[in-house]
Structure formats: structure tokens, C-alpha cells
Amino acid sequence: MDVLKHKCFLEELLFWTIKYEFPQKMVTFLLNMLPDQDYKIAFTKTFVQHYAFIMKTLKKSHESDTMSNRIVHISVQLFSNEELARQVTEECQLLDIMVTVLLYMMESCLIKSELQDEENSLHVVVNCGEALLKNNTYWPLVSDFINILSHQSVAKKFLEDHGLLVTWMNFVSFFQGMNLNKRELNEHVEFESQTYYAAFAAELEACAQPMWGLLSHCKVRETQEYTRNVVRYCLEALQDWFDAINFVDEPAPNQVTFHLPLHRYFAMFLSKAVKCQELDLDTILPDQEMLMKLMIHPLQIQASLSEIHSNMWVRNGLQIKGQAMTYVQSHFCNSMIDPDIYLLQVCASRLDPDYFISSVFERFKVVDLLTMASQHQNTVLDSEHERSMLEGALTFLVLLLSLRLHLGMTDDEILRAEMVAQLCMNDRTHSSLLDLIPENPNPKSGIIPGSLSFESVLSAVADFKAPVFEPGGSMQQGMYTPKAEVWDKEFDPVMVILRTVYRRDVQSAMDRYTAFLKQSGKFPGNPWPPYKKRTPLHPSYKGLIKLLHCKTLHIVLFTLLYKILMDHQNLSEHVLCMVLYLIELGLENSPEQESDEEESAGGQERCHDSWFPGSNLVSNMRHFINYVRVRVPETAPEVKREPPASTSSDGLASSQSSRRKSLQRENSGTAQVFSLVAERRKKFQEIINRNTSEANQVVRPKTSMKWSAPGATPQLTTAILEVKESILSLLIKLHHKLSGKQNSYYPPWLDDVDVLIHPEIPRYSHGDGMTAVERILLKAAVQSRLNKRIIEEICRKVTPPVPPKKISSAEKKTLDKEERRQKARERQQKLLAEFASRQKSFMETAMDVESPDADIAMEVATSEQHVSEAIYDCVICGQSGPSTEDRPTGLVVLLQASSVLGQCRNSTEPKKLPTTEEEQIYPWDTCAALHDVRLTTLQRYFKDSSCLQAVSIGWEGGVYVQTCGHTLHIDCHKSYMESLRNDQVLQGFSVDKGEFTCPLCRQFANSVLPCYPGNDVERSLWQSHSNKCMQDLVQEVEDLQEQLGTFPVSISSETNLSKEMESVMKDIKSTTQKKYTDYSKSPGSPDNDFLFMYSVARTNLELELVHRGGNLCSGGASTAGKRSCLNQLFHVLAMHMRLYSIDSAYNPWRKLTQPMQDKNSELVSEELPEVPVLYRDVSSLLLIQILTMPQPLHKEHFTCIIKVLFTLLYTQALAALSVKCSAEDRMAWKESGALKKNTSSGEKSWEVLLGHVISELSKGKIYEEGETEEITVVNPDSVECYLQQFCLPFLRITSLLQHHLFGGDLPSCQEDEEFTVLASCLGLLPSFQSAHQFTSASCLDWPVPAFDMISQWCSELASFADRNPDQVKALLIQEPKWDLPRLLQLPENYNTIFQYYHRKTCTVCTKVPKDPAVCLVCGTFVCLKGLCCKQQSYCECVLHSQNCGAGTGIFLLINASVIIIIRGHRFCLWGSVYLDAHGEEDRDLRRGKPLYICKERYKVLEQQWVSHTFDHINKRWGPHYNGL
């Protein structure tokens, strides 16, 4: 840190640039000159010279983020060039400067370490609470360091320079033991510190990344020297650290640090040395004592992980869980947990196995649990944690012995194993897999995500599931799912346990495995984790196998098997699973074949001092243990028994007190198993004393006094337990216990000797505990003839039931379950019966209350109409009954305004979303626009009230009614709404607006539609075909229309039903905006309401037609099935329509059925005339006629109305046709028609009728005006086709209406015969004729002579033409053919949209919006949330959704590629229809992948829009407060 002396202007410039924290202009100026080579070198040297000054300024800076970015902006240009970096390293000591600067920087925030020996510790660590660490201020310097280490030449210099290595290890040791956690034992910690983020980030960035950088240069044999250097200085630093914290052999209890970078440096360089440099491991390993010390802290972390998951650290708050998760999380695991486990594997392979195993159980605090006695006292662990800690200890041993990540697996195998583990937990998207597979944190080394090997491994292990849309409404992304053979052969639960951040993922993997086995028929039950064969161990680590063959482990396994068999407490299936796994591992990895003969001879004699004769698991498995001496509390049941006369000297001292005693070694007769804790210390002592250098130091033997709470040690006595079991016999009994049957195990080789020769039998690879036991016994038999023989012997002796209980616990469980189920069933039946009887009595009393008159009236009514009343179930009170006037039932409905119909266009090609200035969309050709123009034109020339009955509205802002099909009493609904109002935790809907969710199916709704009392659908009564003639029926219809106000429910008396009908009508009106209901010139005129009401019916019929695909070819019941509520809706509308009287003089029915006598039109000339009949919309007339008839309607009257209207429709078709053809054609038709006029079937021939229409219309000025676009209609077929197409929409609507009013299915048919089928279905075709001679005219049934009617209708047009000749034709030609509503067609590639709209200016405010969005219905470009375009507190998107979709808007957010839906006052994020090559969304375009349209998703979006199901399918709605 010398004083800076400036010699040139450049140095001066740089100095002030740094002083002012790198102003952007200066940075740019200095960088712009870099192309000049001399300047570049001079500038780099100056930069290096000022490095310490940069660090000091950075530390003081308040804007350290900005400054950091600018520093790196410069340094990355200088240090990425290898040649330049090497030159500066040589000439300016760049490495020295960097390491010193880093060291100096960290020295400013050191604190005393409290690890181990709080008072006398000399070790200092960084304080993670300091701003320097919290804000990552050090990262520019570290990143420069990592950058220069990526150059081979510079890294070589670093690895050769001993002084530098010493300094660097010194720097790393500042992080060793930082962020120490102390377990809170009394109360919950007051303040949860979040320093662990800083700690993990610091270790990863400042220690691990440079380590990975250095490792990437130690890949070949020639680099052995570097590894030796690093390992040497690493060990020195570790030794210093142990001394500084006064560490001897016991870690301090209740504290843990996750940060041991020195251990990890040591481990990773060892791994590299063996894997890549062919170094002999033993030449670089330290002595035993050092290894013993080295293993302590990593082991402490493993035990603490288990404690944290057992909730023993719960008082430390959530952050401790966060640490445990981060430690194993994918970005950290290969710099943290992997090196730790590898280091423990190395220590285990070199240390005494008994010592190691007993250390593990002591660290996990379960030593006391491992006793044969049924009761024990654990002084260091509460009993509720014992089980999970024992599971943790065994799981750790399984991990330690199974993992081969650093012990012989190749990189490809590792990648494959990682990928399989992640995929087994859950199906994954490509991007999440890339994120979850651990890669070397240093970007310049190791696995590069997305490299060929990643893709090829992925395609080998997984199948791609294309993105779909699930019916539940959740968007699926493109997922990868494991192939079947991966589940079969490669699923490795050990790897899954190692890599799970959340414990639930292990369960998820097992559930998926279970599902696979069930599906593929491999195993029906609940399987256990499968045992997977391991990669062979690298020769350097062969010592690891010794762990599996040491007496201590065998005693533990024996004890646990015994305890499980005897049903001691705190044991679980998981414990058994791990015990069996360890036994199997031992059998798989037996040291070398022992000779059976030698064993059998000398076996018994050698067994005097301890449990087992030798250390080989294969032979120890068959060794019988007769008596065991145990220390038990005096209360234990074992004490009462008299010891047998000949007590074997095998005993198990396993209690706290015996630990201390066994320091003075007891007589050699007692087995020293878990006094092995003491044994372990003794070994440690011996090793220490062996090292002469240490001999003169006084060794402080640590007692374990700290552990036991004073006064907690109970009185213990010794008892002797008769066992008489071997591991083999315990396994066989376990098999019986698991199967719940006696003698369930039968040695398979007795039937089939081949089993022993080919033990790899697929039937053993998947299964439960029994399969595992069978597999183990088979392996034991294969490995040794003696074992085989003993297994057979054990099986011959018929085994008595094992535990003292009558039934084994497994059976007991199943029996309990069965009994419980049976009881539950009986209880349920009883309840149901009780409930039914209660309901019955309730109904009876309820009925009694009503007045007797009502009963009699009801009886009379029923005797009259032998029709069953419709019975409704109320989903709230659960009662069934008819809907009555006093207590009406209603359907749960959702009313919503809709402009979907208005979006139909008459082109079959959907419009494209504009992506250039040229492509613009104009809404002139939409259905809504054309209907608007037509109404306005009519209103100009004709009387207003008449105009308002000549058309339908509701193409825009029409009210669509849909139901989920559930019914409820209206009074129940009211109380339900009250309870919702009081319950304030409502999500997504507003009760004040009447919104609720159906109590049964939770579907969104906002009103209740009363069900009309009476029979279900007035069907059978009205079905009979009458023989009345047409004239009579016409007269009846007219009479019925005259009886206004007569309605079965008398309106005068206000019943509950009529009140409800009125209130639902109000709801329907308020659903849409006022502008969509007011079309009359005089506001508020009743004609308006009249028009609105029948238009609601029209909207619903038209929409159902759209949902059926625009035609009725598919037939069948309504696709909406139970969801259709048209019948109920009709009753409500009819009731209201009949309140409006139609002046009989103007009743359209008369005009259609009677020739007018007097023409007194001259008298009323000052008023505008009525709309001519030929200009009226026939479907609207139909609805007016039907809704003004008294309900229920007779079928014969319905058919009569249709027949009359069809004659009008047909005439309109002829008139429109006549206008369209050329003058010559007109003359020809006129003449040919006149010729046939007097034939018998003249009224049913279109030629005659067309001729007549032409001659009548010629009287006016209709054909004179300029020619319209002509269609050349020459051949009769095309005329017939035109007429049918003109009439079809009316027939479809009518058929639907008939289906809803009178029931009966719709017939299905081919498209070309739709006309005939519908005509006959409606009763227009007298008798169905053969198709070839069928003409549409044969459906006509004129109530009065055709030619008179036609002349009368045409004369109205003629008189209008005399006044306004220009408009006649335009109004005649109605456009009947609409295509289905479609959203705009989107381009294939998202970039096309992004490029055009991203910079586009808004038309309203002429700025480029911050959040641009585009409407997918009409293509309008809007500002999302833009205050610039706000009008009366409504932002632009909300406003547009009201104008364009009557409250429904679908917007694509340009900068996020996501679609949002606005529905009324709520909105939701729908998801994206653009996915990348792997089928994933890229919300907010964070990943920047090319996105392509997903047609299936877009279809689903369109489908939901057309079917109005956004509310039901999308679940996450929120209020937008008009702010979008």
C-alpha cells in the first residue's frame, strides 16, 4: 500500500476518475483509446498501480453498486486479454497486489471467532453483518481475480508462488467458521438475522469460485506439483486454525457453522489429484490425528442438518432452515456438501472404522438409543427427536458409503445421475433443469449448460411432454419426464436424498416411482426405495469398504434389527429400510471371499471377548448371540427376570454411566461396544501420543460431563437379556413379521438352483421390505455356503410368533385399519338414516303448516294435468321439492355482457394482428358495425317504435346467461349472501355486486334465475299434433295475443316469484352498459325495454349456435347440456314482455296474415311510416311473437307462427335475389314465372313467386337506381342454393328455440342436408320428400293467397322507393352469412410483434408507452397502467375492455409476452401463448429465448373467449381498481 506518485497526465486522470467514483463520461473516454496498443499497456499498468486506491474508494462509496459495475466495465477489458494479463503480472506484481488488496479489504471487518473455545480463541473471521459483505462490495475485486486466474500462464505463476499461496490461504481462513449458529435452548430468538445470505455468497464468490478457477488448471499429470503446493499450505492453514480455536477432539456442543472453505479447498484438490493427476493419495494425506480433526467439523454439519430437520433448532427461527437448504441447493452443493461428504469419505477410508462409526453415532446423539434394552435414558436428546436423528445417522452412513461423485464416476455419469435425480422428483422444464443441475460455479470451467453433452444426456433419460392445457385451467409448460427404463434401472433414492432442498421432494420421487410400478404392473403395493448398484470404487478409496465390515457397525445393525423385531419405541420403517440397505451394501462389497472351512473350524473359539468373531459381515451374519448384558433403568421389565445359570460374557454396556466406568477398562469379559465412545477417545489418545512432537504437550482428556444434565442420570442396574439370534435369523423373522404370516420365507434356491448362479433376478429389483429381505438372504447365501445352510436350518425350525404380543404389529395395523373402516362405514350408514328420517319429519311438518286450501287447489291442478312437477334440489338446505310461487327455486346463473357476436366477420379468413404500418384493421365489416348502420338507416326513414321491433340488438353488449346447473331456494340464497357479506375474507369477487360462488361446485355466479312453477318442460301435453287447419290456428294466435296481462301467475298479486322475476330482470339490465340498451330516439321509451328483452333471448340463442360451431349439423342435446337455462330465461322475459301492450293496429301478426283492406296511409303522412314488412328481421319477429304469447305455449301455435314467418322470410329472400341479378335475368325470370303462375302448385314454386316479386317491385323505382354488384344467377340450382342459405340462419335459431321450449333432440345431419332436416324437424315440410326433387319452396304454407300477400308487402317497398330511391336496395340485401367469431391471427414468431409494438407510439398520447399492450380482439394498441391515457379515473385497458368487449378484454402485454384478461372489475394473468423451443413460457422475457406461437394454447384462449368461461376456468382473479 505505497504512497501513489504520479508521473504523467494519464495517472493524474485516472486518479481523479477514481476519486469521483468513475463518472460515466470519463470511463467512456478512457476506454475509447484502448485500441492504441501503447496506451492500452500504459493504462493497464496505471490501473494496477491504483488498485489499492480503487479498493479504498469503493469501500467508502455510497453508490457502491454503480461504481462496481463501472470498475468491472474497465477491468474486464484489461484483464481478459491473456497476453496483457501475463505481462502486467510479471512487470507489476499484479497477483501480489490483488491478493494483498483483497486481504486488506477483508481485514477491516474481522471479529473474534466464537467457535469452540469462546474465551481463548485466537481465530478471527469476517463479520457477515458488515456492509462490505452484506452488499457484496468486494465482488469487483474478486471478479477481477477470478478473471486473471482463468489464464493458464497467470494461474501457473500463482500456484508456483509459495508466498502467494500462504497469503491466499490466510485470506480464505477469514471465512473459515464465519456466521456461527448457536442453538437456542430456552426461548425463541428475538431477531432472526439474515446474515447467512452474505455468508453463503461470500464463500461462493470469494473462496469457491477462485478455487474452481485454479482447479481448471490442474487437469493433467504435469500439474501434480501445483496440487502438492495447495494441499500443503491448506493443511498448514488448517493446523493453524485448529490451534487458534484450541481444538482437541470434541466439538463444542450446540453450535455449527456451514462455512469451512479450507476443508473444501483441501477436499477438492485431493479429488482432482486422484481423478486427473494420478497422484498417490497417501503421499499427500496428513497423519491420522489430523484426519481425525479434519472429519469433526464436516461431520458436525451433517449431524446439524439432521437436527435442523428434526426441529431441534426451531427456536433459532426460519433462517436456520434457510441455511440448511442453501447448503444443499443446486448453486452451492458442489462447493459445499459434496466436498464435505467427499472429505468424510477420505477420512473414513483411512481411519479406524470402529472409531469412525462410533463417532458418527455420537455426533448424531443416538448412542444411548442403541441398546438391546426396551427402555433407555438419553441424556443428550429428547425422545421425540430420537427417531428422526437415528434416521438421519443411518441415512448419512448410506450416503457416505453409496455416493461415488468423487470416488470414480466420470463427468458424464455424474451429469446423468444428477439429471435422473432431478427428473425423478418432478417433471421439469428445460430451463429449471439447467438451473438445478450443479455446474462448476466458475463459468470458465466444467460443465457448460446447454452443451452437447447436456442435451444428449437429456434425450437419453427423458421424454418430452409437449405443453398442454389441463382442464383444471392450469397452463402446463413443456416438461421432461423420466423414461420408463430410467425408473426401472436408474432411479437412485440416495442421489435424490442428497439433492433435495425440501424434504417433500423425496416423498414426491417415491410417489412417482410407486405410480410407475403400479402402471407398468411391476409391483402393486407400496414399494421401498430400490437398491441401486454402484459405480466401482477408485482403488485409492478402497478403505471405505472397511466401514461396512467393522464390528461396531454390525453390532448397531444387529441391535436395530432386534429392536425393530421387538417393536421397541422410536423406530420406523425408514430405519429398517436404511439398516437393510447397509447390510446389502456390505454384502455387495465384501472385502475378499473368505474360505468357509477355516471359518467353521476356528469360529467358535475366537469369540470370547466380544460380540462377533471377525469383521467380515458375510460371516458375522450367521453368528448367534445368546446373552447380552444391558444397563437398564431399575424400572425396566428386564430387571425382574432371573439371569440364567450360565451367563455368556457378552454384554452391551450402553449407558451414560458406563461410559465413564469403562475408562478404567472392565474385565475383558464384557463386550465393549458402545463404551466404544470411550474406546474411541483412547484410540485418539494413543495416536496423539505416538506423535512425538506432541508428546510433551499435556493432553487434556475431555470428559463428556458437558453433555449430561446434572441429576438427570437415573439409577441404572445391569440386567442380562436372552437373545439367541443371529442377523440371519432376525432377518427371517422380520420377513415373517412384515408379511404377517408364519413361515412366510422359503429359500428360493431349494426350488431353483439357478438362483444362486444368476442372483440378479428382476423380480427382486422392485418391491417392499419383504423383497429387500429376500434379496439380502439370497445374496448372503450366494456369498457363503455356510450362510446358505444356516438359512435353511432356521427355516426348518418352525418359528414361534416372535414378539410377546399375539399379533405382529404389521398385521395389527392392517387389522386395525379394517376394523376402523368397518366401524366408519357403520357410523356413516347410521348418520345417513338418521338424517333422512329427520328430513322426512321436517318436510311433513313444513307441509302441515300450509293452508289446506292450497292443498286442495294443488290436488285439483294435478288431476287436471297428469304431468309430474319438476323437482329441484336446493344445494344449500339439501331439500328437494317443486318451485312454488311462495318459495321459488332458482338456477345459479352468471350474467355477463358480451360483444363476442359483434366480432363475427363475413370473411372466412381471420384477420391478422397488424405488425407493420400498412396492415391496419378497420371494424367496418364486423357484424356489430353492420347491424348498427342498418338500425340507424331505418331510424332515419321510419317510425322509431316500429324500427325498434324490426331488428335485434345485443350484438355488442348483449347479455349472456349461463348456469352451472345447480338450483337453490331463493330465500336460502339470500341468507347465503348475507353470510358471505359478513365473512370478510373473500377473494376475487365482490358480494356487494351480488357476486358469489355456487355453494356446490364453486363456480362463479352473480344472480339467480327463478324456475317457473309447473311441469318440467311443458312437453307431453302439447306434443299431440292437432288437425286444425292453418286459418284457425292463425286466428287462435291472434286471439291469444290480444289477451294481454293474462298470465298464469297473476301479476296483480305480488308473489315472491314475480318479485324475484323482476329483480332478476333488473340484474340482466344492469349487467350491460346503458349505451347498449338505449337505441330509441326518445330516451327511456318502453319500446327500448321491449327491444332489449327479446334481444337477450336472441343473444343467447345466437351464442349457443356459435358454441355448436355455427350450425346444427351435430344435432344431439345442447352441448351446454345442463348449462342451458333458456327455458327459465324465456319465462322471465315473457312475463315482462307481456307487460307492454302492442297496439293491435300495429300488430305485425295481422300484417303477416291478413291482406289490408283500406289504404289510409295518406291521412297519416305527417308521421314517419312504419318499417315495411320486408325490411323486418324475421328472427326478431319470431321472438316478439313467441314472447308475447301466454306461457306455456302450445306446440301447434309455435309451428303456426313459424310457418307464417317462413313465408315472409322466403319473400325477403326472393326480393333480395331480384335486386342482385341483372336486368336481363330479371326479365327472363319475370316471364318464366308468369307462364307457370296458374298451375296448381304455383304458390310453392320459387320461379312463379320470384316472377311475381319482380313484377310487383318493378312498379316502384326499385330497380332503377345504379346497378348493384350483380350475381349472375342463371341456373336454377344456384337460385335454390341462394334461397336456402338465406333462410338457414332463421331455421337454426328456430330449431334451437323449439328444442329448449318443447324438448326433443335435434337431429344430426350432413351440412348439405341441414336445410331439409331442420325444415322437417320444425314441421314446415308436410311429408319428407326425396332429396333430388326437393325445393325450398315446398316448405311454404301460405295462410292467405300468396300473390295477394306478396303484392301487399311489395307495395310498401314501392311507396318507400318513390320517396327515397337510394336506400331501397341496401336495406333489402341482408348479409346472412357470418363466420364464427375469431381472435386475431398472431404471427409465428414473437419477435415480429415485439419489434413492431415495443417502440410504437400510442395514438392517444403520442408517447412510447412504458407497458404497451395490444387487444387481441380488435388489434387496438393501448397503454397498460398509463396515466397519460386515463379518462375519468379509468385507465386505458379497462376503458378499452368496456368499449370493445362490453367489459371483457384480452390483452397481450408486449414486454412480458403474457396475456391478461379483464372481466368487469377483475383481472387475471392468463399465461402466454408464445413458448420457446422447449415448450416453456418466458414471462417478462427474462431468459430472452426465441418464442414461437403455441397454436393449441391460442385455440384454448379463443375457446374460452367464445364460450364465456374465463370466470370458471381461471382461478386467480384480483380487482384492478380501474388501474390497468
Major sheet characteristics: 6 strands, antiparallel
Number of helices: 60
**Global outline:** elongated
Number of E-type strands: 24
Computed Rg: 45 Å
The neighbouring-strand order within the major sheet is: 18-17-19-20-21-24
In words, what does this structure look like?
With 1524 residues, the chain is of the alpha+beta class. 49% of the residues lie in helices and 7% in strands. The protein contains 60 helices and 24 strands. Strands 18-17-19-20-21-24 form a 6-stranded antiparallel beta sheet. The longest helix is centred in the middle third of the chain and has 41 residues, at 809-849. The protein is elongated and about 130 Å long. Mean pLDDT is 81; it is low at 594-609, 640-676, 692-713, 800-812, 844-867, 1016-1024, 1045-1052 and 1158-1165.
Topology summary:
Blueprint: H1 9-19, H2 24-32, H3 37-49, H4 51-60, H5 64-79, H6 82-92, H7 94-107, E1 110-112, E2 124-126, H8 131-134, H9 139-149, H10 152-160, H11 162-173, E3 181-182, H12 195-215, H13 224-244, E4 255-256, H14 261-275, H15 281-284, H16 288-309, H17 318-328, H18 337-350, H19 353-363, H20 383-402, H21 411-425, H22 430-436, H23 452-461, E5 462-465, E6 479-482, H24 484-490, H25 493-499, H26 504-520, H27 551-565, H28 573-588, H29 596-602, H30 617-620, E7 625-633, E8 651-652, H31 656-661, H32 676-690, H33 692-695, E9 716-725, H34 727-739, H35 754-757, H36 769-783, H37 785-796, H38 809-849, H39 852-864, E10 872-873, E11 880-881, E12 889-898, H40 927-941, H41 944-947, E13 958-969, H42 970-982, E14 996-997, E15 1004-1005, E16 1007-1010, H43 1020-1023, H44 1030-1042, H45 1056-1071, H46 1086-1107, H47 1126-1137, H48 1148-1153, H49 1178-1187, H50 1195-1220, H51 1223-1236, H52 1246-1257, H53 1276-1302, H54 1314-1321, H55 1346-1363, H56 1368-1372, H57 1390-1398, E17 1412-1415, E18 1421-1423, H58 1436-1445, E19 1448-1453, E20 1458-1463, E21 1466-1471, E22 1474-1475, ...
Helix pairs in contact: 4-7, 5-9, 7-9, 7-11, 9-12, 11-13, 12-14, 13-14, 14-18, 16-18, 16-20, 19-32, 20-25, 20-28, 21-23, 21-25, 27-28, 27-34, 28-36, 34-36, 36-37, 44-50, 45-47, 46-47, 46-49, 46-53, 49-50, 50-52, 50-53, 51-52, 52-55, 53-54
